[in-house]
Write a structure and sequence with these properties.
16 helices
Length: about 625
């Protein structure tokens, strides 16, 4: 790019960055700015997540007080359970980590002006919003939303007698297909931006672990979502055209059905081939974010950075060979079950490495118990406990009696529900100053943390006991079951009260978000004194184009904290090279000024020098 072209590009960025007139609609609605799109993703995900939260509390009221006016019947209970599970796993967590955090942080952390394909990025959000609207529309069709369970197993998902088997299941499947289209558009953008738009000096092994987590999770999504897509199309055809991909010959409600020759187990294999990588599509971004929060707020470089990167890659690879441990009760060959039990235990090894590295990063660090750090520490505790219960369920002989009990509910929610949401909260408290220029209220944040952390333990930890008792999941009432003692009923009431308290506590978080937007303390450019690149932008909040006229040049990794001899306890990634702080071995090419950078994209722009570390 010659100097004239570069000047024109910088002028376009200063004017709005799109090359067309800017107004409210193009700046905030049909925006192609990755930061605005991230907020749109996050806002939509949080709103639909609140719907899922309400549904969970309606279920809890039924379980605790089945004979009261607060209860609900079996059909509505199954519908609430199905919609709650699908909303939380797909439309909240997946969208929030990839579309929200991924969109906002990737360009800033790798030193790019925006995503490589801004228009496609904008389009991905609107397609995601369409998927959410189609999903919520199922509440208003005849029969209501599907009550087949969030795994949507055939044949019962599309047969008479299942709640929502008319329009509800059709809208659910259509919504999932639309969501996968949106996720694919976004995922191609994230991967291409990481590979092609890193700024000069930002090698792959200088990227923050947040970027690594989102990057690998996106690759998993691009490889796993097609399995869900094709299974959704085939089930939609089974429902509407009476094909028999998943439907065997059977009799329903005394009447023969038009199906024959299909395999319900085929759907289970396709679903869980997507479903278990989906766990890590959510978990890997959480791992990366927690790594950054711990390093920043412990004022210490991350322990074993390269090992952490390899652990992320190993988890991503192994996540594709463990799916059938969700199907131990399907009657599989014992040798088949043995393989998946072993692979399930093996994937715990790189996960354990990450936990060890987090603990060793904290060891002898200058730990600041900020709100983001509290949520990060809570994540480690919750994920560790949830992961240990997963070792039980990874063994065939233990999994079979526990599979349909509340033990699985407890394990799944600790690992896949509570732990990632703790990271979501920690990440928002950490990056809210960058997004808005203001700090969230600290007292409200701490109160929100303790209500959420202690409350979720009060909800899900006792469910392990209920599972060992044999209390089955997906039942809307347990009255009349002689094997369930009175203590279990009392515990259900206690869990419900805790769930209502936790749900109410989230209002503090929402109030804090809104109130601090105008009344929060002015944050400044780098309130946490962080070394990673997103905190070194010329303006806070960053304007479109992020970096002004010149892109930054990176000279070190993102974890240069407490470097001996440094003036401060951190050295920014783009501070002059002579300040030191790089963990990488000496490379003659860099000494000669030939720092590695990808070809093409924003990183190919010439720079006018680098800025020093912020004061």
């Amino acid at each position: 790019m010659d100097h004239a072209a570069h000047a024109a590009h910088a002028a376009n960025d200063a004017a709005g960055g799109h090359g067309y007139p800017m107004n409210f609609w193009t700046r905030y609605v049909w925006s192609q700015d990755h930061k605005v799109i991230a907020i749109q993703y996050g806002g939509t995900a949080i709103l639909v997540g609140l719907v899922g939260l309400v549904l969970s509390n309606l279920m809890r009221l039924q379980l605790a007080f089945p004979d009261s006016a607060l209860g609900t019947d079996a059909a509505h209970y199954q519908q609430y359970m199905t919609m709650h599970g699908m909303i939380m796993v797909i439309y909240l967590l997946t969208a929030l980590f990839l579309g929200g955090f991924g969109n906002y942080l990737i360009p800033l952390m790798v030193g790019a002006r925006d995503m490589v394909f801004p228009f496609l990025n904008m389009l991905s959000f609107w397609v995601y919003l369409l998927s959410v609207l189609v999903l919520l529309a199922s509440f208003f069709v005849t029969g209501g939303p599907t009550g087949a369970g969030w795994t949507l197993y055939p044949p019962q998902a599309i047969l008479q007698g299942t709640p929502g088997q008319e329009g509800g299941i059709v809208l659910m499947l259509v919504s999932l297909l639309i969501f996968i289209v949106a996720a694919t558009m976004g995922g191609l953008n994230y991967v291409t931006t990481v590979l092609q738009a890193r700024t000069r000096g930002m090698t792959l092994l200088r990227m923050p672990l947040t970027v690594w987590g989102i990057f690998v999770a996106t690759i998993l999504a691009l490889l796993a979502f097609p399995a869900l897509f094709v299974s959704g199309v085939m089930m939609l055809l089974d429902k509407t055209l009476h094909t028999s991909f998943f439907m065997p010959a059977l009799v329903s409600l005394g009447q023969p059905t038009p199906y024959g020759g299909g395999s319900p187990l085929l759907f289970q294999h396709l679903f869980w081939f997507f479903g278990h990588p989906e766990v890590y599509i959510v978990a890997l971004p959480a791992f990366g974010i927690v790594s950054d929060l711990i390093s920043v707020h412990a004022r210490k470089s991350i322990f074993g950075y390269r090992t952490m990167v390899w652990a992320i890659l190993a988890i991503g690879l192994l996540s594709f060979v463990v799916w059938a441990h969700h199907m131990f009760i399907s009657g599989m060959n014992p040798y088949f079950g043995f393989f998946f039990a072993i692979s399930t235990l093996i994937i715990a090894v790189p996960t354990a490495i990450k936990v060890y590295n987090w603990l060793l990063t904290l060891w002898r660090g200058d730990i600041h118990f900020t709100v983001p750090m509290l949520f990060a520490l809570a994540f480690i505790s919750t994920f560790l406990i949830g992961g240990l219960t997963g070792l039980f369920l990874g063994n065939v002989t233990v999994d079979i009696p526990l599979s349909n009990t509340y033990f699985v509910v407890a394990h799944f929610h600790m690992v896949m529900g509570v732990a990632p949401l703790l990271v979501v909260f920690g990440g928002i408290y950490h990056w809210y100053p960058k997004i808005t220029g203001r700090m969230l209220d600290d007292r409200l944040g701490r109160l929100h943390f303790w209500i959420t952390f202690l409350g979720t333990y009060a909800i899900f930890f006792p469910m392990h006991y209920l599972g060992v008792l044999g209390m089955p999941r997906r039942y809307n009432t347990f009255e009349g079951y002689a094997f369930i003692p009175p203590s279990a009923h009392l515990l259900n009431e206690f869990i419900t009260i805790a769930a209502l308290v936790v749900a109410t506590g989230q209002l503090l978080f929402l109030f804090n978000l809104a109130w601090s937007l105008r009344h929060g303390l002015v944050a400044g450019g780098n309130p946490w004194r962080a070394a990673s690149l997103e905190w070194q932008t010329p303006q806070t909040p960053p304007v479109h184009g992020n970096w002004g006229e010149a892109l930054p040049v990176v000279h070190r990794w993102a974890y240069a904290y407490s470097v001996p001899g440094a003036k401060e306890d951190f050295i920014a990634q783009d501070a002059p090279a002579e300040q030191g702080g790089d963990h990488e071995p000496y490379r003659p090419a860099e000494a000669q000024g030939a720092t590695e950078a990808p070809a093409g994209g924003a990183a190919a722009e010439p720079t006018q020098g680098t800025r020093g570390a912020p004061a």
